[in-house]
Specification:
Order of helices and strands: HEEEEEEEHEEH
Oligomer: single chain
Number of strands: 9
Strand content: 35-45%
Radius of gyration: 23 Å
Shape: elongated
């Protein structure tokens, strides 16, 4: 019976030591800085592409993985049907034509190579609908809410996170060099 108590005691001690080690080792802690301005990436007669840089950085003690990211428009046609909005998430220096987001690591805080930071872009293409030209459609534009959603993991199980971005009608009009019409 004494041997059984010793074995149980050793198992409990091993579990406690493992939990203490894991607590000291820490987890990933992804933060996002959304303070960058919205900029015009490109513009032609038929569309305008706007983007906003999102600075992701890891404040945690462990590496994190961003496995997927999407930029989803929250502008229904019931609110404004004069423009079609197509959003995408893009990693800095890794443009893709197919809107696929390739997984990327963000190293733990203080990584020597600076890989504890990552720049992603929320990009939207605005295209006029119903035969309108771009300037007219943007002159009647409303605020454009966007959900930037990503899947992350590390030592914690994978989970989705999101932030809400709003490109205001005034901001869009100024960037497109149009006068906003108050309807």
């Amino acid at each position: 019976m004494t041997v059984l108590y010793v074995i149980i005691g050793l198992i409990v001690l091993a579990v406690v030591l493992a939990k203490l080690y894991l607590a000291a080792a820490g987890i990933e802690d992804i933060r996002v800085d959304t303070s960058a301005p919205v900029v015009v990436e490109s513009q032609d007669e038929g569309s305008i592409v706007l983007s906003k840089q999102l600075n992701f950085y890891n404040e945690g003690k462990q590496c994190a993985t961003i496995m997927d990211a999407i930029c989803r428009s929250q502008l229904p046609y019931e609110q404004y049907d004069g423009i079609e909005v197509r959003g995408k998430a893009e990693r800095e220096g890794e443009p893709r034509e197919d809107d696929y987001f390739e997984a990327v690591l963000i190293q733990k805080k203080g990584d020597r190579n600076g890989e504890d930071k990552l720049n992603l872009f929320a990009k939207v293409r605005l295209t006029p609908r119903k035969g309108a030209d771009l300037k007219t459609a943007l002159a009647h534009m409303v605020d454009l809410p966007l959900d930037f959603i990503w899947m992350e993991t590390g030592r914690t199980p994978w989970h989705y996170r999101k932030i809400r971005l709003v490109f205001t009608a005034e901001e869009i009009a100024k960037l497109a060099d149009v006068q906003l019409v108050q309807d």
